[in-house]
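Problem: given the chain below (254 residues), write out its structure.
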Amino acid sequence: MIILQSLFKSFATKQVLRGVDLQIKKGEIVGFLGVNGAGKTTTMRHILGLLRPTEGTVTVDNLDPIAQRMQVVEKIGYLPENNPLPLEMKPQEYLEFIADVKKVDRSVLPQLIQDVAITDVLQKPIEQLSRGYKQRVGLAAALIGEPEILILDEPTSGLDPIEQDRIKDLIKRISKEKLVIFSTHILSEVQDIASRVVIIHDGTIRYDGPKPKGTVDKLFKDIITGKQTEKPAKPTKSKPAKKTVTKPKKTTKK
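Solution.
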């Protein structure tokens, strides 16, 4: 479980996070939404132990991502927004390198390569791959070691609709029995994939709950523009009809 309590973060004079409270448990797929600069990436970097909170606490399975970073990193697969792949390497070489760094047996790679569908490009330099294939290589690297937690920062950013669908399907397949947080600006992805929606705006959580009955698009726009979202009316309980008991007429003796 990931727990963020009263999380504040400031860079110089700019306050980016303003008291973020969030709990996410295994089995949830959280669509993390917000406009640019809302605090999405900053929040995720705190979970990874890449940033130290100005105030507040972050725990990952009761571990401190700063003090116990190596233990936390072993639990998390991370795909950053701008995936920093070594362009001169080939996917096969890169994934073998990541497996060695994570101390994972290379025998797991063939199945993983098949799962993310990159068999055809294993021996091509990464710099020659399309953005979609690069994202899949990055996702494969994040999945090495079967992490319990996946943090995906805009995994379909810049992809064409076909590649977006492939990445979405892949996330759905691999996310069973994992804790998944993914940020995106493509609201239909959240509608398709997420089991829970979290919207951050101006450094605070403005919505945290299930997907709405309508569209995520409407919910997001209402939250960001400050409109009140419609709440489903509570069903009125109808009172049970009173039973009328007819008493037998008394017969008078003559």
